[in-house]
Design goal:
Immunoglobulin-like; four-stranded antiparallel sheet; three-stranded antiparallel sheet; 3 helices; rod-shaped
């Protein structure tokens, strides 16, 4: 068939074949397999690792995703049959292309960057959630502490007020008791002053006593 393999690189190769008028199928079968030494000499279709089908209107095909520095066997047939030796060619791929290496590095760097960005976003979301949860918890604890402090202060104020009232009442009672013990006459005088009826009654008794004294004296003189 006059098959030729051209433009061989580390990952691609172009296979060219002449059109055959005797090919009645609607496609060409392009089969290739690495490691020619492991290939059986029978050229069985199932022995090939890859197989591509292209329309009969075409006479070339670009084979991709090849392995650098590898020996390949490639066959082209115009029917779904096992190829013969004159329908196959053996070729060797080259080293990896610098452009391909650069593209691979760029893809790798892009993948690493995307992965790192996703991880950073996840970590940032977790940290943000933790901070918000901690702030809410502290705010809740602060409000509870303020409520407890307010209740405690109110209780202390009420206790102090009750204690002060009780102490003041006790002090006044004690003062009154001391006053009564030290000045009983003064208490009685104050009682008399406050009660007018009690005040007039002793005075009248005193006047009557004064009137009786001279009478008694006169009686004595007469006797």
């Amino acid at each position: 068939m006059g098959i030729t393999v051209q433009n061989i690189t580390g990952n691609t190769a172009v296979v060219i074949w002449p059109k055959m008028a005797s090919c009645v199928d609607s496609f060409y079968s392009i089969m290739y397999h690495p490691n020619w030494n492991s290939m059986l000499p029978s050229y069985s279709r199932k022995s090939f690792q890859k197989e591509e089908r292209v329309p009969t209107s075409r006479s070339s095909f670009v084979v991709e995703n090849l392995t650098p520095l590898t020996t390949y066997i490639m066959c082209v047939t115009c029917q779904s049959a096992n190829p013969s030796s004159d329908q196959c060619r053996v070729f060797n791929t080259l080293e990896r292309d610098p452009a391909s290496v650069n593209n691979t590095k760029k893809e790798l760097a892009l993948g690493i960057w995307l992965t790192s960005s996703v991880l950073l976003l996840i970590i940032a979301a977790i940290l943000l959630y933790g901070c918000l949860h901690l702030l809410c918890r502290r705010r809740h604890e602060r409000l509870q502490e303020q409520n407890r402090t307010s209740k405690h202060d109110h209780g202390e104020a009420w206790t102090k007020s009750v204690a002060y009232t009780s102490g003041e009442f006790s002090r006044q009672s004690r003062q009154m008791k001391d006053t009564e013990e030290k000045h009983p006459s003064g208490i009685q005088l104050a009682t008399i002053i406050e009660n007018p009826s009690a005040r007039n009654e002793p005075v009248m008794s005193t006047s009557k006593s004064k009137e009786r004294v001279p009478v008694t004296g006169q009686c004595s003189a007469i006797n």
